[in-house]
Amino acid sequence: MMDHSGFKNHQNEHLIYAGRAGFAVLILVIVVGVLVWRYHDLQVNRYQDFVTLSDQNRIHARAVPPPRGLIFDRNGVLLADNYPGFILSVVVERAVDREALINELRALLDISDDDIERFNKLLARRRPYESVPLRINLTEEERSVLAVNEYRLQGVEISAQLVRNYPKKDYLAHVLGYVGRINEQELKKLDPIAYSGTHLIGKTGLEKYYEADLHGEVGYEYVETNARGRVMRILDRVEPKRGKDVYLHLDHRLQDLAYQLLEGERGAVVAIEVATGGVLAMASAPSYDPNPFVTGISTKAYQALINSAERPLFDRALRGQYPPGSTVKPVYGIAALDSGIASASYAVRDPGFFQLENEPRKYRDWKRGGHGKAINLYDAIVQSCDVYFYTVGVNMGIDRLSKYGKAFGFGADTGIDLPAEASGIMPSRDWKRGSRGIIWYPGDTVNTSIGQGFMNATPLQLAVVASRLASRGEVRAPKLVQKIGGDLIPNPLTDVMNIDSRHWDHVLGAMAGVVTDQRGTARRALAAIKYPMAGKTGTAQVVGIKQDERYDASKMAKLQLDHALFIAFAPLDNPRIAVGVIVENGEHGSSTAAPVAGQIVDAYMKFYPHQVTPLEADVVAVDSAGSDFE
């Protein structure tokens, strides 16, 4: 019998083969099933997701910054405009190597360390695929260089935007202020949507105060890009809304004249239209050109400005604080009459000094030897007699001096539409106790009675005081802006001082005598004025003079000379313009400051020969009783 165990078992092999083939088919079916499921998931279930992602790679939404509103003077002359400029920006997601790209750009263009520092700070606050500005206001040559090298500058964008420009340069720098690049601190406070794509913001002056109106509303555009991120075409666009135009009360001709009159001096001029409270001129000298700040001033140029002994960046009209000197005398004259401390006929003897009871110290009059035996209020204002006001001031006391001084605008913000206004100092017992920690002394009252001692005022406040004197006690905040867009900005009266008209007549008549009386301190300086004008000279002491010494300008440095001040309004019978002037170290208000005020007033009268009436929006009912000091 033969043994067949060594032969193949075909049936067994068939079963094994069939099993293996079936397993392979099963694996293949599973794999194909997974592929079909995955294909269905990608092509059907997640179709819209991938379409969106694809569009995001190809289509991008980018912000379109709005054109900034323009600023005009009262006659429609353009004071702040926009001109086309080109900005170099970087989209870091499209740059292969950011640092290498920056180095490449620095080799092609003049990019400063300040530009790099600002760029790096802005990177932290940007949104994905949002361009970050590196250089503003490229020249035509620089744009050409970038165009030639475009193929190797992935992530770089050149966009056209409007850049701020100030045609008047230094003549309006402190009033208009300037716009500059948004910094890191500002980014944290700003609405990221409202300022998307915007690189500039108001930093100082009217540009800052009216930022919300001037800025406008951002727009958007949807653009198609190629694989390298270059914009191929614009698919859709939502237009931005330009900022509102702003119209000022200010007259650029008076502003120009004010700066020309202050040429070579440090000082300030402020002119106010009495009927409206509108600021006609507001000059601070010396000044600076704000245009370099728009595109980014260099560190060297900025250091030169802040280290200058002339302090051109300092706004003297708004923030300069000086002893008002004798310009306070009309205010204290009104106070003496209204409070019943002195009558119009009350007279004092002026031997050239004043002494407090039981005190040996002598408070000198500016005129050595005095003004005479019987000096009344009219004489005291016309001749600027210190002894009269020493006497009356001590009789009134600091409480009354402080109350009336504050009513006329000393020691408080005026309410002008500018940021960072200084409030000056109208001293009082409480003020000295709070700021110095000591009590008020009678000698402090003596100094305050002639606008010296602790008392300080800004040139703007001096103009406000002149305006309130001219209007016989009408209290109205000074305003620069007359209209925003098509809307008039109301500037209503907030109070009217309830003072007897006879007191106004007497004091304002004395101020007219300052200009016209033979003994008037400003008679010579304003002899050419052809209409009735009222004023008051002032001299503010800069360095102390010992009792046994005389003021000798020839032995003093320029910075030690007295400040020269003058307040004025005209015409006398129906005042239309009020002016405050200070010339630092100008020595005499009569010879230095008064001629400046005279020329400003004279120019205004020529420019506006007819009476200017208040804007309808300014006419607001005020309680006829006004405010009563008693």
Describe this structure in words.
The chain has 630 residues and is an alpha+beta fold. It folds into two domains: 62-143 and 151-248, Alpha-Beta Complex (Penicillin-binding protein 2a (Domain 2)); 252-295 and 313-618, DD-peptidase/beta-lactamase superfamily (Beta-lactamase, 3-Layer(aba) Sandwich), CATH 3.40.710.10. Strands 2, 3, 4, 5, 10, 18 and 19 form a seven-stranded mixed beta sheet that branches. A five-stranded antiparallel beta sheet has the order 12-11-23-22-21. Helix 10 (252-261) runs antiparallel to helix 22 (589-607).
What is the secondary structure topology, with strand pairs?
Elements: H1 10-45, H2 47-58, E1 59-64, E2 71-72, E3 78-90, H3 98-108, H4 113-123, E4 132-136, H5 140-148, E5 156-165, H6 173-176, E6 179-181, H7 184-189, E7 200-202, H8 205-209, H9 211-215, E8 219-225, E9 231-238, E10 246-248, H10 252-261, E11 267-273, E12 279-285, H11 291-295, H12 299-306, H13 316-319, H14 329-339, E13 348-350, E14 353-354, E15 363-364, E16 372-375, H15 377-382, H16 386-396, H17 398-408, H18 429-435, H19 442-448, H20 459-470, E17 474-475, E18 481-484, E19 487-488, E20 495-496, H21 501-516, E21 534-540, E22 563-570, E23 577-583, H22 589-607
Parallel strand pairs: 2-10
Antiparallel strand pairs: 1-8, 2-3, 3-4, 3-5, 6-7, 8-9, 10-18, 11-12, 11-23, 13-16, 14-15, 17-20, 18-19, 21-22, 22-23
Helix pairs in contact: 10-22, 14-16, 14-17, 14-21, 16-19
- The H-level CATH homologous superfamily of the largest domain, spelled out, is DD-peptidase/beta-lactamase superfamily
Uncertain segments are 613-626
Tally of distinct domains: 2
CATH class group of the largest domain: Alpha Beta
Please tell me the overall pLDDT: 86
Inertia-based shape: elongated
